[in-house]
Amino acid sequence: MSDAQPHLYLVDGSSYIFRAYHRLPPLTNRHGMNTGAVYGYTAMLWKLADGLSKADGPTHMAVILDKGSSSFRNAMYDQYKAHRPPAPEDLKPQLPLIRVATRAFSIPCIEEEGLEADDIIACYTAAARQAGWKVTIVSSDKDLMQLIEDDGSVDMLDTMNDRRIDRDYVVEKFGVPPQQLGDVLALMGDSVDNVPGVPGIGPKTASQLIQEHGSLEAVLAAAPEIKKPKLRENLIAHADNARLSRELVRLVCEMNLPEPLEALALQNIPEAPLREFLEEQGWKSLLNRMVGQGARPSNGERPPAPVREAGPGAPEAISVDRSTYATISDAATLGQWIAEARAQGRVAIDLQGDGGHGLAEGLAGVSLAIGPGKAAYVPLGHGTPDLLNEGPAQLGLKEGLGLLRPLLEDESVLKLGHNLKDQLKLLAEQGIVVSPVEDVMLASFALDGGRYGHALDELVKRHFEHECLPLKAVCGTGQKAIRFGDAPIAAATEYAAENADMVWRLWQRLEHRLAAEHATRVYRLVDLPLVPVVGAMERDGVKVDRAYLAELSGTFAAETASLEERIFAAAGGPFTIGSPQQLGQVLYDRLGLKGGRKGKSGNYSTDQAELERLEADGVEVARLVLDWRLLTKLRQTYTDALQAQIDPKSGRVHTRYALAAAQTGRLSSTDPNLQNIPIRTELGAKIRNAFIAEEGFSLLSADYGQIELRLAAHIADVPQLKEAFAKGEDIHTMTAMELFGDAGKDSRGKAKTINFAILYGISSWGLAGRLGISRDEGKAMIDRYFERFPGIKDYISTTLEKVRERGYSETLFGRKTHFPNIRSSIMSLRQGAERAAINAPIQGTSADIIKRAMVRMPGALADAGLSDARMLLQVHDELVFEVPQGREEQAAEVIRDVMANAAAPVVTLDVPLSVEVGWGANWGVAH
DNA sequence: TCGATCCCGTA
DNA sequence: GTACGGGATCGAG
Predict the structure, then answer these.
(1) In this protein, which residues make up the domain named 5'-3' exonuclease (predicted)?
(2) What are the two backbone dihedrals, phi and then psi, of residue A155, each rounded to the nearest 5 degrees?
(3) What is the distance in angstroms measured between the alpha-carbon CA of A226 and the sugar C1' of C13?
(4) Of all protein residues, which has its CA closest to the C1' atom of B8?
(5) Would the CA dihedral through A165, A169, A175, A176 be positive or negative?
(6) Which of A43, A537, A564, A662 could covalently link to A666 via disulfide, CB atoms 3.0 to 4.6 Å apart?
(7) Both A271 and A408 in a single domain?
(8) Residue A384: per-residue pLDDT
(9) Which nucleotide is nearest, taking the CA of residue A877 and each C1'?
């Protein structure tokens, strides 16, 4: 190591320990004390000290801690950090251990009464800079980011997420450089430290304002001219709070250094005290690392890094010149391209529709790519046929598709596409069955699910840092939008050919990862084969009784009108009932009702729970509004909207299923969403009766009973649950008996709530809210549940451990869902990710199973001589079919069989899957 | 015309 | 507490 510039590492010990406590799994030392956080802390110090001889590693190091509970900021503002919950019980005894651990490393530990760690860090940073040293602050606290210097002389290291935080990071995250960060933080406030900020201003607005005006004072000065009324008022009314907040977030250095800089030199660490500490704690793995290494755990030997998969990797820079794309308007040229595609054995294709959603309205053209940058557009339906003008030179639809058909159907030529479902649907209408195919959207979904969206332009941006020509640049937007087929051919070529080009390049990049990252099974055996199946469901659509819906609409409307009158009478005048803002004002300001709860936008909450609370207090208008909401919701969202969605050509409703939208692997349904048709309320359930079978057919509904609980029983290996399912017992009753020793209505209801809470990633707070009990009672109930069903507890901890280590969860079939926030330093994000990570394997396995059933269904029906039976809808655990009358029993047998055995042979479940089947003239009676 | 927010329907 | 999509309102452009 040369005598280069000294480099001081300042470790923000207090904040580290809190974060470590929340994110690391609990760990018990040999005295039965939880030491997870201290262990994490020790491992971190180890790693840092290990950098002594490394480039950019520390030459000097100190740990800075908070001391005492109040600082000069409390004198400034007595509410500062007032709402901080006390440290969790099992963290408290760990706090003094930090000092012990730090001493064991012979690293100085600095704390000062009345000063927060942040201020001490600011002081040392200033002193070290003055001495010409480099400083790295080991923390992820945003307040400390104010200290970062543009020239790199001060940066931060977030060891939790293993990343350097520098000026660019701050600019990216907050929109301003570190020098202006304090102003942004002052505006946005901090609910954890109870820094007030300005109401209604969050990170986004704060950053925008400071960027615009340069400083907090400038923002406050300009406040009267700000256009947005709410923002203006808040800025003026809370200017003092903003200034106070500015002082609260300011880091101050008003102390003499308790230890001189030179005293912080990092030495080789003496072995004895460290060994003693590790032995005391019983941390064998760290002890073993010391063996033969001397005390300093360096000498090049690092513990093996956790196994991480490749991931999307760094973006690959590409150069794209859209002007080189070809437009093909004659048969000879197209023939040459087709020949070259044949020679390559693969071709990327993209179809351009004519308007409306997806490709429903017909074909404007086809683009092809036969290599990176080698792409062309074949217009087929541009311009409107016109007796006087010929329109643009192009191959006609018939001729063009005639030439392309042999290529598209050639089994020896691989067709690459993005979201091929919609394109294959359209070609199928022309009688062209494309095979074989690969879909980059689905490949990306299988590889990078949960990481980001899988739209083509987003994938291109992520993988190539390239911006695709947006469709609106070609077709415009809104009312003035034109059909793709009416766009100028030159622009259409740039857009369409680029898409095919990008598909080609993406497949090159994704293909090899499928096998390497074990995503092949989900991609090839589940999602890809589902494409034509779902395409057929969309094409077939479901018949809807328009007259019946219209009648319901009428009834609902009349009912709504009378409710409206009564609401206005009770409210003392008309207002927009549908506006939560106005409703809140009427209830709490005009009528003066008590107990209004305001959300962060400053409006009163008027959601169902609040209105029900008012209703219980005898407020009649609350009941009326609830009824009004139910009726308007049903009318607007269902009876009216559904009528509008009936395709005039088929008289049926053709929903569209998104295959790569839901993180867990579920399908989603849009335009209209047929996966949220009402059923729970009596009134809502009437809407299901509008879904009817074609003349001579019945609607048949088959749904899995409690599939997610069954999967939880299997995955978490809970003997009692598995046994109950095997015997066909009522699962919630069984749970109630286990938990409470009785299965009265009340107990069973509670048990049911807990069972669901488990699936959703339980928290004592959430359960308490749901059951209307205290948090402690909720906690006790969860503890009891874990005690009775230890498998569930193990499942949760091992799942989280795995996700933290690898970054993703997996279903029984190997579908991965990534959780980028699982190690976030922002608690709410992290906890959200944890709940989702607990739920994803269960919800995702259920999605895999029903998808496998769907893939097998058409063949199974055909084999049974039921090719007239059609699968129409999927609602997560339910499939809806149209079956010829008189064949219902037989179809039910086949369907039940396919669904119940859909996990096999890949996965053998310890619990049976039950399938309930019903049928009738409409969905309401079938379900 | 667009995005954010609130509210609410399903599994 | 999980996973979605969509309607209305509101405020901005």
Answers:
(1) 4-267
(2) -135, 180
(3) 15
(4) A633
(5) positive
(6) A662
(7) no
(8) 67
(9) B11
Structure tokens at A690: 């509008």
Q: Do residue A95 and residue A147 come from a single domain?
A: yes
Helix A13-23 / helix A117-130 crossing angle, nearest 10 deg: 130
Tell me the Ramachandran region of residue A161: left when phi exceeds 0, alpha when psi lies from -120 to 50, beta otherwise.
alpha
> Angle formed by the axes of helices A528-540 and A827-863, to 10°?
70
- Judge residue A850's burial from the number of C-beta atoms within 10 Å of its C-beta, 0-12 exposed, 13-18 middle, 19 or more buried: buried
pLDDT score at A2: 47
Task: Give the HSE-up count for residue A677: Cα atoms under 13 Å, Cβ half-sphere.
Answer: 26
Instruction: Establish whether the CB of A200 is closer than 7 Å to any nucleic acid atom in strand B.
Output: no
Beta-carbon contacts of A610 under 8 Å, excluding residues fewer than 6 positions away, are A597, A604
pLDDT in tens, A518-535: 999 999 999 999 999 999
Nucleic acid strand B: bases within 7 A of protein CB: 1-2, 5-11
CA angle A547, A694, A859 (to 5 degrees): 145
pLDDT tens-place string over residues A720-742: 999 999 999 999 999 999 999 99
Buried b (16+ CB within 10 A) or exposed e, A860-890: ebeebebeebbbbbbbbbbbbbbbbeebbeb
Task: Please say which residue of A838, A857, A887 terminates a domain.
Answer: A838
Residues A272 and A341 reside in one and the same domain: no
Same domain assignment for residues A268 and A123 = yes
Here the CATH number for the domain that contains residue A87 is: 3.40.50.1010
**Which residue's CA shows the smallest distance to C1' of B11?**
A876
Tell me what pLDDT residue A868 has.
Answer: 96
Plot region of A437 (φ>0 → left; ψ -120 to 50 → alpha; else → beta): beta
Phi–psi pair at A657, nearest 5 degrees: -100, 130
A576 CB inside 7 Å of strand B: no
Strand partners, A352: A365
A223 CA vs B6 C1’ separation (Å): 27
Instruction: Decide if A630 is inside a domain.
Output: no
**Which residue is nearest nucleotide C4, judged by alpha carbon to C1' distance?**
A668
The DSSP annotation for A552-577 comes to HHHHHHHHHHHHHHHHHHHHTS---T
- Please report the pLDDT score of residue A823 as a whole number: 92
Strand partners, A808: A818
What is the pLDDT, as a whole number, of residue A11?
A: 93
SS3 A673: coil
At residue A745, φ and ψ (nearest 5 deg) are -60, -45
Q: Which of A481, A498, A515 is the last residue of a domain?
A: A498
Give how many domains chain A has, as a whole number.
3
Distance, CA of A754 to CA of A757 (rounded, Å): 5
> Do A270 and A329 fall into the same domain?
no
- Domain with A749 in it: 707-838
What DSSP character marks residue A678?
Answer: -
Separation between Cα atoms, residue A776 and residue A754, nearest integer Å:
15
Question: In the structure, how far is the CA atom of residue A607 from the C1' atom of nucleotide C9, in angstroms?
Answer: 15
Q: In degrees to the nearest 10, what's the CA dihedral of A791, A738, A744, A617?
A: -50
Same domain, residue pair A271 and A358 = no
Q: CB A684: neighbour CB atoms within 10 A? A: 15
CATH code, domain with A789: 1.10.150.20
The Cα A644–Cα A672 span in angstroms is 10
Residues of chain A under the 50 pLDDT cut: 1-2, 292, 294-309, 356-360
Same domain membership, residue A162 and residue A283 = yes
* Closest residue by Cα to residue A914 from A731, A692, A717, A682: A731
CATH number at A485 reads 3.30.420.10
CA separation for the pair A171, A173 (Å, rounded): 6
Report d(CA A200, CA A383) in Å as an integer. Answer: 50
DSSP secondary structure string for all residues of A377-427: EEESS-S---SS---S----HHHHHHHHHHHHH-TTSEEEESSHHHHHHHH
For the CA of A198 and the C1' of C13, the distance in angstroms is 25
What is residue A1's predicted lDDT score, i.e. its pLDDT?
46
